[in-house]
Amino acid sequence: MSAYKKVSAVLFALFVISGVGASAQEPSWQARLAQVLPLMGHRNWIMIVDSAYPLQSSAGVETLETNTDQLEVIRKVLSAVDSSIHVRPVVYMDAELPFVPEKDAPGVTAYRQAIKTVLAGDRITSLPHEQIISKVDQVGKTFHIVVLKTTMTVPYSSVFLQLNCKYWSDDAEARLRKAISAGGTK
Q: Fewest Cβ atoms closer than 10 Å to its Cβ: which of 68, 73, 74, 126?
């Protein structure tokens, strides 16, 4: 074997071993969110969940491990959504959270205070956990959902963001529907 062929074989082996030329490395959760957020619209969801949230099997559900503090993930996601031109968040949280006692879930009291600060200014709809999961299950059959798993270990602490249209308000939609049902065009 010529010296050229030996060098070529060694370089090829190093190329394969190093992963260069193989499929691109899995993007970080921030990079993936930046890729998918422009594609998302009303009826899509972004869920920032605790570490025990189950891996869902619906085709429309994409789960990403963040290995990051939940409050930090929420801040980054809300910032990304706020910076978008097309979507705004409708925030859901588990109705069980206010009733979780500190003795059973150390840190829950501090978490409740911290999440109030992080979500200050956002209207929060509280529903029982099973109702939110049922909504997500239904939506996941038709629309894309991004689940961001965090290092949070407090139960019922997940934050669910249903995306809605930023440039078309709920009030505008209600007026439109009223006009359509009345047979008008205004």
A: 126
